[in-house]
Design goal:
Helix content: 55-70%
Radius of gyration: 20 Å
Largest sheet: none
Number of domains: 1
Structural class: mainly alpha
Strand content: under 5%
Number of strands: 0
Shape: globular
Oligomer: single chain
Number of helices: 17
Order of helices and strands: HHHHHHHHHHHHHHHHH
Amino acid sequence: MIWFLALLAIGFFSAHFGTYSPSNCNVKHQLPFYRWDSFWYTSIARHGYSFSTEKNSSIAFFPLYPLIIKLTHFIIPTGEDKLSFVLNILFSFLAALFLWRLARFDYSEKTSRNIVLVFLFFPPAYFFLSGYPDVLFALLAILSLYFARKKQWPTAGIFSGLLAVTKPYGIFMFPALGLEYWRSHDWNFKSAAKKIDWLYLLLPIVTLGAFIYFNFARFHDPLAFLHTQKTWGRELGNPFLSLLREAKTYLLSGNIFTGENFPYLVYLASLIFSFFAGWASWKYVRKTYLVFPALILLAAFLTGTLTSWGRYMLLGFPILIGPSVFLSRRKWLFYIYLALSIAGLLFLTHLFVRCYPVE
């Protein structure tokens, strides 16, 4: 509740300041967190998908979140923007609750609480209240692993199947659950294969396949959602050269501490923190969990940009468990980290609401 009220307060407070300038940021919207891509998700809920390889189009966004908004709108006929905000509040509380329950499989009550605190107050967590599917994605990922640990494989498979049509990176839960299933059978492949419940773990492939078929049926291009990524500045290539070009663009601009180039410092800080998080997670976190964030960060790296690096860490939430455990064993260090993290969260929330591109 403190987390929610703090973000809400800073959001409405920041909305009274002048916005940065971008015209595609919904700067005049009454909800302070309805910024940037929020418009695309509510537009899909209202009007469906569009596709173009020449300009930004909505097929780049996966369907579950706008579908939930649309279905909720049938029950509560109010604005889709308001519904997305209310839904994200609900998803946030559920994510915190089930993350705590998931953590309790391996850690003490105190450490589990600290894991939730690090997760909620991680600086990019303001996206949980924006009109983005990030918190839904995190919730479904948490539920997938939670029910896998309870060995309720049909339920875990259903949630992972939903995850695969929430954001493109959801498919990476498939190998993570496969390894968890194998581990639950003491790494005995023959014993695991004899059980029929492993078939439920194929649901991410089924749901992603259904979305690919929709792309083909609607736009005559089964990979339309990938082919439009170029218009959004994301495409596969040599990531090292792309990252070098990106660094030069920002660092040689002469105004790295102001204006639209400032977010690069945020991305760079997130990258540095990810090395510490990876080390701590390898030491303190169940290895089957780490397949999921590792593949997310690898896919993000291959796009050749550091944009949203912190968000990718938040989506691959197990990588935040390691730092939580490490810091929990050093009480005052944990408090120092949490204070800095809260300050970073509130500061970035302030910038996001004012339409700085801190994605």
